Amino acid sequence: MKRITYIPIASILTISLFITSCSEPITTDSFSTSLTDIVYDPVEFTPNLPSSFPILEVPEDNPLTVDGIKLGQHLFFDPVLSADSTMSCASCHLPEASFTDQLAVSTGIDGIAGTRSSMSLVNIGFAYTGLFWDGSVQTLEEQALLPVEDPIELHNSWMNVVPKLGSSPLYQELFRKAFGIESTSEISKELAAKAIAQYERVLISGNSKYDKEERGEYFYSEEENEGFVMFFDEDPDILDAECFHCHSAPLLTDNSFRNNGLDAVSDLADFADLGRGGFNEISLDNGKFRVPTLRNIALTAPYMHDGRFQTLEEVLDHYSMGGHFSPNRDPEMVKLDLTEDQKQNLIAFLHTLTDTSYLSLEHIQNPFN
Amino acid sequence: MKMKKYFFILMGMLLLTSCKDDTGDFTLNFKALYDGEPLVMLEALEYTNYDINILESDFYISDITLIKGDERVELAAIDFVDFSSNNFSIDRAEEGIDFNYLEVPVGTYDGLEFSIGVQPEENGMLPNAFESNNPLSNSGNYWSAWDSYIFAKLAGNYRGDDGNLSETWFFHTGTDPLLRTFTVDKEIIIDPSESSSVSISMEHKVLFQDGGDYFDIETNSINHDPTNLAPLEMIVNNYISSFTFD
């Protein structure tokens, strides 16, 4: 009887030990160094948000601190995260390009092209419906773990990265100050991801001409104003370009998932890229992608998830004809038949969404420059 | 000392038990129908002398309240009935959407009331005032030109010249005058021992009733025009008659 009882217990113990060993965080155990000599004095960071912006929701287990952001800033710009130390997060998310790479699709360290365009990271902290074009990852903390090990991005492993960080005096100090760890053995991919998430959460852009006009600090030109009125349907006597349904204020996105008529398909299974539906396996969501912010849109060409449009003119031509038919094309994609003047007015308004004032902020700049 | 300790533990347990006995759970379920059948998004539907489909049907409900004489027990200030996301299959359409309200005071209520749309106080606020788990935080459902939330969205396609359901129609309602209230005139018993529920079915074809006929979607396919409220008033009034409950 006893033997019968012991065998399952032994098996469970063995399996438990196996599972425990597999799921243990990757740390710098073999290079353990005490860090307690470095002062840990966390200071809360309060981002300067425009009053029109939504509430910035921060996870309880990853509050914003000055040193947490600083660590994230270093990791974001440091090519140490890639296998051959040639690329960093910033390689595909250039600050001066509103944190895109201005390419149709991004290419990783092995020269392998991805299938989708790098999304702007400005105001990414407010993307509560999910990240990436398909919303397949819910939080910045989860997202930050992925590019390091993605074979078409940084093609590295955290097993390689974490010891490198632990052996670097710079990162020893930054991790200690950010999270109060007492030894390099506590440096982990989870803490690195938390720090990157903190940095990304404070990439706030809210000081464009559009914002200044809302605050009464700027007056639109005639063209810009016509474009604004068409964009937001402010005047029933002027053509409604129907933009605001998806690109709603103040973020200029509602972060929803929509099919904006890019591809003509008669069957929902025929989209070349299934988008949201490829993630959640709901065919009604095939061909839908997250609505990107239009903030800094003049800096982020080419456009759409696959970079198919080179210019804003091409984008407006697409919307003007109502997009291509597919069964789940968004109902708000209607034929507009915009005149050239109307297109130019809309483009003039879109240019008022440009704001690069964040480039001058010390906590956002490349710390290695 | 020991007796005193046991006394407080006993009192605490009694208090907890009595609290639990004073409340029960209640579920409000919504189902979407078209011509009496569960509505599945994108399915072709016979309309008048042409077909349509529905791609989007969602609306806010607010001030969801149980009524007992003059007494009102608010279950929730706001919820969002989102058939657009839910009804992607026949199974989901048959299940409908549940809103579960916990720890409702026990009692026998005369009925339930809710409004279709957003109450004027909240409608005077912007989405940025609400946390992301509140349905009012969705900026895509706010219409700055109207200073109002979009109370309800209805959208789809009708059959075009190409033979496909390819021509768009959509109607968005909003603004305080278009808020409507529906009453479920039915005894609802909240009991701690079992969960009670009310199921509301919404017949979508009724939404387009125009007198004894149906609204011509082909000739009036889009409306969110504040200067042309008549079709929207017709639709918001039809929401009330589209609901049946059991």
Report on the structure:
The complex is a heterodimer of chains A (369) and B (246). Chain A has helices spanning 2-23, 66-77, 89-92, 140-144, 146-149, 158-166, 169-179, 189-201, 209-214, 222-232, 276-280, 312-320, 340-351; strands at 257-258, 289-290. With 369 residues, chain A is mainly α. The model of chain A is unreliable at 1-25 (pLDDT under 50). Chain B is 19% helix and 46% strand. Mean pLDDT of chain B is 90; it is low at 14-19.
Describe the largest sheet of chain B: 9 strands, mixed
What fraction, in percent, of the residue positions of chain B are helical? Answer: 10-25%
The ordered H/E elements of chain A are: HHHHHHHHHHEHEHH
The poorly predicted ranges of chain A are 1-25
The CATH topology of the largest domain in chain A corresponds to Cytochrome Bc1 Complex, Chain D, domain 2
Instruction: Tell me the total number of β-strands of chain B.
Output: 18
Distance between the termini of chain B: 56 Å
Would you tell me the structural class of the helices and strands of chain A?
Answer: mainly alpha
Overall radius of gyration of chain A: 24 Å
The total of helices of chain A stands at 13
- What spatial form of chain A do the alpha-carbon principal axes imply? globular
Please report the number of helical segments of chain B. 5
- Count interface residues per chain for the largest interface: A-B, 34 and 35 residues
**Which structural class should the secondary elements of chain B be placed in?**
alpha+beta
For this structure, the quaternary state is: heterodimer
